[in-house]
Amino acid sequence: MPVLCVALLGFAALLPAQVRTAKLAMPSNIEVKPDIVYATYGDKQAFGPIAANLAATGVAAACIEYRVLPDVKFPDPVYDTKAAVRWMRAEGKKYGISSDAIGAIGGSAGGHAGVSSCVQAVAAMAPVVDFAGRMMETLFSDRPELATKLAPVTYVDKDSSPILLIHSTADKAVPIQQSEEMLARCKKAGVPAKMITVGGEAPHGFWMQPQWAADTVKQSAEFFHSVLDKLATGI
Q1: Cα(113)–Cα(127) distance, rounded to whole angstroms?
Q2: Is 32 helix (H, G, I), strand (E, B) or coil?
C-alpha cells in the first residue's frame, strides 16, 4: 500500500511560546485510519523512513519532537508527548484519522515518552521504565522521590494500554531488565503485554539499523493493527 503523503504539521506544547512539530505520514485507500505517534529525540527527519513504512501498512504515523532532561524539567517531556496526542485527537479527523485509535511508539527515551502517554496501544523499544538502583544514584541522588514519579512502572494498573516491548539482549545502554520489569508489572495488573527479544549483537538503537529495522516495523505494525483496527470503526 503506497504512502499518500508526508506533511509537516505543528502542535502547541503546554509551555508558553513553545511549539513542537510533527511529520505525518499517511496511508492511502483507507477511509478510517488508526494513528501512531512516534516519539523522537533529535532530528525527526531521521525517523521519516520508519513513519513511512508504518504508513505503508495502513496507519498514519506522526514523528513528533519532545524536549529531554536536563535541558528542561520533568514533566515537560511528557507534556510534549501528551500535547501531540491531544493534537491528533482534535485535528486528526481532517486527515481521516480515528481519534479513538491512537498508538505510541518510541525507542529508549522515546519509549519512556510513549509509555507515559495516554493512548490505546504502545510499542516501546528498549524503554527506560524504572530509575531505581544505579540510575537513581546517577540521576536522582538528591531527589529520589522524583525517580519514582518519573518511572512509568509506577503507574501501571488494569487500565493501562496494551504494550509491545522489543529489547536487545546485548543492550549495554538500557539493560533488558527494564523491559522485563515492565512486562512483569503489566501481566500482574492484567494488562495485555508481549515482549520480543532481539538476539545477536543488536545495539541499543537497533530499530534504526538496517539489519533490524524492517523486523521492528513489521512487529510493531502487526501489534498496532491487532489492537487498533477494531477501535477505528468510524470518524
Answers
A1: 9
A2: coil
Q: What are the start-end ranges of the H helices in the chain?
A: 48-55, 76-91, 109-115, 134-139, 144-150, 177-189, 210-228
Q: How far is CA 70 from CA 3, 42, 56, 142, in A?
A: 36, 14, 36, 14
The angle formed by the CA atoms of residues 155, 158 and 164, to the nearest 5 degrees, is 75
59 occurs within a structural domain: yes
Residue entry with cell 488494569: 158
CATH of the domain at 100: 3.40.50.1820
- Phi, psi values for residue 7, rounded to 5°: -120, 145
Asked if residue 233 belongs to a domain, the reply is: no
Length of the chain: 235
- Residue found under cell 502487526: 222
Fill in the DSSP letter of residue 108.
Answer: T
pLDDT higher for 27 or 230?
Answer: 230
Overall number of domains in the chain:
1
73: DSSP letter = -
Q: What is the mean pLDDT of the chain?
A: 77
Residues 119-154 have pLDDT tens digits of: 888 999 999 898 876 665 566 667 777 778 888 898
